[in-house]
Amino acid sequence: MQRGYFITLEGLDGSGKTTQMQRLAGWLEKHGPSALRQSAAVTDATAGNWASRNLVLMRQPGGTAMGDRIRTLVLDSRTASIAPMAEMALMFADRAQAVAEVIQPALDAGKIVICDRFTDSTEAYQGGGRQLGSELVLQLHRILCGNLQPDLTLLLLPSLEISLERARRRNDSVAASNGQDEGRFEAEKEAFFSRVWQKYREIARREPDRVVTIEGNLSIDEVHEQIVEAVSERMIAARMTS
Fold first, then answer.
1. 150: preceding bond cis by omega (within 30 degrees)
2. Is CB count within 10 Å lower at the N or C end of the chain?
């Protein structure tokens, strides 16, 4: 069986990852079979069924029962004084479980996995923001996650100011509506986020074949158009060479 395809979305909170993941999933549901040159037996009329069988959406931290508990712990602003190393260890515990329980089995079954954050986030936030460095993050990824690499990473990089404004406004709205608090990182100073932003740029420069950067304060539609172009080109090329 042909291996599946692993797409990750990266960027600061407030960069639009969740919205764009949902829009990409919708595009694949509508256009995936024909756009990605799947079997001729899959037609537009059966695209919805194809998508329900072949798309797996994930987020990190979270996405598994254990991961959701870790998410609550590490993102809640009432959680105080997590040491940087402990924070990174929790992120990798979540990721190792997600790889073993969901991501690797889905890829082995030939499915498309779209994940909101993966190890690039840990390298950016803990490696860059917390100043733990890239080497330790990448070493832990090799040991704990079998060095599983995305086939394509979509890095959304609106300006730092716009991202922080959106993230803080969203967290305030969510907390007011349902009491859910995921604002611990947004309480950090701007210097922290500047290091995160710069680390993302460093990752993109280091791995240009994997990372597609979509930069600037673009509209939702403009970002979606660039994502669709990148995904369709990369996935078609992967299937033609496999």
1. no
2. N
Q: Which residues contact 185 (CB under 8 A, 6 or more apart)?
A: 13, 75, 125
Nearest to 204 by CA among 153, 140, 163: 153
Q: What is the pLDDT of residue 179?
A: 64
Helix (H, G, I), strand (E, B) or coil at 219: coil
Question: How many residues in total does the chain contain?
Answer: 242
**Residue 181: CB atoms within 10 Å:** 15
| pLDDT, position 203 | 98
* DSSP code for 46: G
Cβ burial of 189 (10 Å; 0-12, 13-18, 19+) is: exposed
Domain ranges of the chain: 5-241
DSSP string, 58-115: EESS-SSHHHHHHHHHHH-TT-----HHHHHHHHHHHHHHHIIIIIHHHHHTT-EEEE
DSSP, res 36: T
Q: Is the pTM of this model over 0.85?
A: yes
